[in-house]
Amino acid sequence: MSAALAAAFAKAANADPDPDQALDLSELDPELVDIFVEEGGDLLDHSDGLLAQLRETPGERELLVGLQRDLHTLKGGARMAGIMAVGELGHVMESLLESVVDHRTELGRDSVVLLERGFDRLHAMVTRVGQRKAIAMPTALIAMFEARSRGELNLGTIEAPAAVAAPEQATVDDTGLKPLSAPIVDAAPLADDDDIGVRAPQEQVRIRADLLDRLVNYAGEVAIYRARLEQQLGAFRGAIAEMAQTNLRMRDQLRRLEIETEAQIIARYQREGDAGEHSFDPLELDRFSTLQQLSRALSESAADQNSLQITLDDLTRQYETLLLQQSRVSSELQEGLMRTRMVPFDTLLPRLRRVVRQASSELGKQVALKLEGTQGELDRNVLERMTAPLEHMLRNAVAHGLETPAKRRSAGKVDEGTVRIAVRREGSEVVLEVADDGAGLDRAAIRRRGEERGLVRSDAVLSDSDLDMLILEPGFSTADEVSRLAGRGVGMDVVASEVRQLGGALDIQSTPGQGVRFTLRLPQTLAVTQAVFVRIGDTTFAVPIASVRGVGRLSRDLLDQGDVAYRYGGEDYHVHDLGVLVGHAPAKAEGQLQMPLLLIRSGDLRAAVSVDQVVGNREIVVKPVGPQVASVPGIFGATIMGDGRVVVILDVAPLVRRRTAQLLDFAQSAPPPAVPVEARKVPLVMVVDDSVTMRKVTGRVLERHNFEVVAAKDGIDALERMAERVPDLMLLDIEMPRMDGYELATQMKADPVLRNVPIVMITSRSGEKHRQRAFEIGVERYLGKPYQEPELIRNVFELLGIARHHG
Questions:
Q1: Are 697 and 784 within one domain?
Q2: Residues 394, 329 share a domain
Q3: What mean pLDDT, rounded, does the chain reach?
Q4: Sign, Cα dihedral of 255, 257, 261, 263
């Protein structure tokens, strides 16, 4: 670019008034001004996309006509609102395009640069109007467009804008632009009534962002209540199944009662001999009417109870059907509301293009912005929060990554550098890649600055990835001088912090001489996400699935060796204890042969955290926890379970990093402090009885004494539950369907995993023969029903070897 042209641009940009001067609204309609600003922002964003295509194909007539149409609409709206400066600049820009379309002048690369300056200027002016700040008539810039339209201004053939320290750019950069607060359904240009071969814009409705957020939140609440209803209905279905089992037992007992009654009648008849009436059989005469009537009444009551159970079963099925239908409608409602929160990523592109143009112009570099898959959608909140980090990354790419044209030529590269933004979806995540083909990260400079700041010891051995991650430290910069674009150290740390707060991950890959690529993995939405549930002791936590790379198991022998790593996908995951990370008792995974591991990946971090149990994964509604709790490291949010419990959502990576830093400090300072006494483990007692009442009553007695209780209805049910978790003690009934207490105790004593579980047999069979058989099998205690609570608790404490004050 010639010095004359640079001076012309600088002069054209110096027309703004005092940046703080207010817009004079005395002769303007504020409502019309607001409408114009909203429409103008959409038109300029659409024009920016056409302008990017025009740079690649300067002679494309359709692009020229599209830009001309946008400018015509913008000009009309500006004049209608009384913003004459915007209207005049739009008019002369439209005139230039008209002369090109009519072949009165040619559109060279110089004219594209001039158009870019004009559109940047229009965007700055519309932004200032929206902020109620004064704007001036850009007389010099208008004169340049008028001269170019007449073919009187020869700008020369240039490939890209060179360094121009123009105040115009500062004005554009300092406008504080933000993406639209409501999703854009269609970004088609707004055409005049006489425009025609143009696609009609789809109807759209703008609503307040806070109202939409509240609706999404309400939909989430409905999902929570639905889950609670499903859980309660499941419990009701379980109660009906228990009722069916009770009815079966009652009918069996009545059948035996009837047989016994008939036997007594016949026996008495035989004893009485020939005395009495012999015309009727004793059973026909019902001579023993009281006992017989009670037996029949009980039989009728059992039949009524069975009929009531069938009725409840039918009603439950109907409720399940209704709940399923409601679930479908609720899910569709929630998905629809989530879709309205989704915003195409390309709505952000005009702003990003302007950032690249301004940065490259200031630094005298030639930069092309390449885009891939930007039609993908993100949650509006995610997009808004990632706007500033993306701008930082683009400025860094231009300032730090790309070389000057001279250096690129000496390295065998083309003069024009490339910055690429790629968007793709992987499962429930949106992956953003920002890459450049520059020199790559200067690891020597990073190492030197890290040592100067005390982040790295001079004798420390660091891998390339560890060095690369230093650029994410707050205040870190390798620039020697502070400029508008570099040297302040407030770039990549902002990016890393925002990504972590969104529950995402950031990876860096740099190749010397070929460039650097930043990969950002973000949740597609912040309102609903998939999470893995894990348990430590009696506490359940949720971990966003975006940071989970898999689930594994590790031998306890290897875990006892200390610092170990788990190999997965060709990478080493250092093992940590989630219980220790969250200040809980260490994970024990009682009853399991191997320790379950949750594999976490976040940026350069690879960690395998041991837990007591991986419960499973499900979709959750993310709830904010407030500033006090959110300030605690490692807490991402919370969710409400179907039973009303609040479960904390963990961000494991900060917990691991903090633990690693603590261990490093301990190793470099005084001897480590004494290991704290391990928290007492809550014993697990299994109650096996076919009676619902006995299970509930016994469970409540144990819970009052601070025991954890799990119940089973017979021997087979108990074995299935013990396959997941082995209890510390069992309370066992004898007479049960499918598998009785003797059979279960025999199997347990023959199993090497279960043989050491103490068994207390509680039964109404108090005879010596039954007691002796139980002791022969290996049962530790034998109590009769009904038991006395103090006696039961005394035996439980003795068998568990727990001091009485535990309760």
A1: yes
A2: no
A3: 78
A4: positive
Q: At 376, which CATH number?
A: 3.30.565.10
**H or E element in which residue 396 lies:** helix 380-396
CA distance 482 to 489: 9
Q: How far apart are CA 597 and CA 614, in angstroms?
A: 8
**Phi, psi angles (nearest 5°) of residue 235:** -65, -40
The two three-digit tokens of residue 223, written as one number: 């999902």
Residue 353 domain-assigned (yes or no): no
- Closest to 621 measured CA to CA, from 600, 598, 638, 634: 638
Task: Tell me: do 165 and 223 sit in the same domain.
Answer: no
Q: Cα–Cα–Cα angle for 420, 396, 522, nearest 5°? A: 60
Is residue 203 domain-resident? no
C-alpha–C-alpha distance, residues 468 and 443, integer Å: 7
Number of domains in the chain: 5
Domain boundary among 496, 523, 550: 523
Mean pLDDT confidence for 601-624: 81
Under the banding of pLDDT at 50, 70 and 90, the label for residue 517 is very high
Rounded to an integer, what distance in angstroms lies between the CA atom of residue 762 and that of residue 734?
8
Q: How many helices (H) and strands (E) does the chain have?
A: 25, 22
Cα 398 to Cα 434: distance, rounded to the nearest angstrom = 12
Query: Contact, 85 vs 138, CB < 8 A?
Result: yes
- Whether residue 165 is predicted with pLDDT greater than 70 in this model: the reply is no
Contacts of 230 (CB under 8 A, 6+ apart): 323, 327, 642
What's the per-residue H, E or C state across 205-230? CCCCHHHHHHHHHHHHHHHHHHHHHH
Q: Is the pLDDT of residue 580 over 90?
A: no
Q: Is the peptide bond before 786 cis (omega within 30 degrees of 0)?
A: yes
Cα 29 to Cα 33: distance, rounded to the nearest angstrom: 6
* 688 closest CA partner among 719, 722, 712, 717: 712
Rounded CA gap, 18 and 173, in Å? 16
Query: Which residues make beta-bridge pairs with 608?
Result: 575, 599
Residue 277: strand, helix, or coil: coil
Asked if residue 351 is part of any domain, the answer here is no
Distance CA 187, CA 204 (A): 10
Residues 6+ apart with CB under 8 A from 491: 392, 393, 395, 396, 477
Q: Is the overall model pTM greater than 0.90, yes or no?
A: no
For residue 171, pLDDT beyond 50: no
Q: How far is CA 408 from CA 45, 55, 57, 160, 412, in A?
A: 32, 22, 25, 15, 6
Question: What is the structure's pLDDT at 421?
Answer: 93
Q: 646 with 694, same domain? A: no
More confident: 10 or 499? 499
Looking at the structure, tell me whether residues 598 and 688 fall in a common domain.
Answer: no
Same domain, 85 and 159: yes
Domain boundary among 508, 523, 538: 523
Tell whether 513 and 389 lie within a shared domain.
yes
Contact, 600 vs 652, CB < 8 A?
A: yes
Clarify whether residues 8 and 129 are in a common domain: yes
Q: What angle do CA 462, 464, 467 make, to 5 degrees?
A: 65
The predicted pLDDT at position 481 comes to 57
Distance of alpha carbon 472 from alpha carbon 506, whole angstroms: 10
The whole domain housing 219 covers: 210-343
**Using CA atoms, how far apart are residues 600 and 627, in angstroms rounded to an integer?**
25
CB 651 within 8 A of CB 675: no
- Evaluate whether 545 touches 529 at the Cβ level (below 8 Å): yes
Q: How far, in Å, CA of 396 to CA of 83, rounded?
A: 36
Integer angstrom CA distances of residue 674 from 460, 582, 671 = 28, 19, 9
Instruction: Residue 529: name the closest of 771, 82, 220, 249 by CA.
Output: 220
> For position 679, what pLDDT does the model report?
44
**746: in domain:** yes
pLDDT at residue 729 tops 90: yes
